């Protein structure tokens, strides 16, 4: 398995620190608003990476933090005239609702910044003892001149950097690029007691404290959006490696931007849709397929045209699963056993996913598989049920378990749905009897009646199948 490592700027063979355990940290949301569909891309692609690692037999300990104390949260609280913790709790709840709807598997733990302030103070204390952090009237800053390799992740040289975008300007700092570890309390803001007086943590120290507490001082994979490479992830490295004196992250993974008309989608530009907005129009499976059709590291343009194309792709997968399930329910042991190399398609799927999680090629393998299966079904009047079990298993392992681009959740075994399926099968049999007795008008009434309630039936060489619209 090869992973593109942002740090080395090349693909590297994936060898975890302590196999079969894989420790993976994903930068989560700052909970002051509904997250936008660009954030959703990072969350979904990290979910697919994690799912595939588990598919390959790794035991993945996956941590996603919640930043629940931050300048943006305080600003939102002032705008809405309510406490900052209420704002953070409201949008935390919304975050969990939305990732659940996007079929993102729950993290092992979702640590909150406010629950780890002591761990942050401990790291800052250690940095101050080493002369790497300095206190200016209750504000504590990291002195980047004391970390000679600063810039090694982003490739930026400190003498070429200018303070400005994403670098906080503060005259109390020795160097404009020094960053805040601890911020002195201001009236009306959340604050905690510390050796430097009342205050709150800076943004970057939060992830260092939470990742090292829950995953250890060295971790396998740290993931996040491209926009976090500098300064956030650069500063995490500086803090962690200066404090603990060991390599912080083995593999850095970064997800490409989602663009609107070739411009990065962001809250600051105002050109964004929330995940909620998009989920109101498209299913989670459609959104996931839309993202999976582009490699995680590259840019992706957001458009209804591409989402509608993904929707049709999801329908093709669902249709084949419906055909397979209908045949399995009929439980016919009669019919041919077509020669088909299922393992070849599994191997092809794994081969492309092993190449830096190449989801576009993985999706192509799935659709090649669907075309080949549909051809076999069209060419054979009766096929043994064993074949359809294999079809369903292949799609479950790839399209469902790894990519999450088809719905094979509990509804397929739900008792109420099972009764509903039996009733539909009964109506199909009644229709067949009516056709045999040449009562075609009544047979058409059965078909049309089912269509009115969203059940489409189709006559094929292998028998009658149905699907829900």
Give structural notes.
The protein is α/β, with parallel strands linked by helices. The protein folds into three domains: 211 residues, Rossmann fold; 96 residues, Anticodon-binding domain of a subclass of class I aminoacyl-tRNA synthetases (Four Helix Bundle (Hemerythrin (Met), subunit A), Up-down Bundle), CATH 1.20.120.640; 60 residues. Helices cover 46% and strands 15% of the residues. It has 14 helices and 15 strands. The strands form five sheets. It has a four-stranded parallel β-sheet with strand order 4-3-9-10, with helices on both faces. It has a four-stranded antiparallel β-sheet with strand order 5-6-7-8. Strands 12-11-13 form a three-stranded mixed β-sheet, with helices on one face. Strand 14 and strand 15 form a beta hairpin. Helix 9 packs across helix 11 and helix 10 packs antiparallel against helix 11. The longest helix is centred in the C-terminal third of the chain and has 27 residues. The two termini are 39 Å apart.
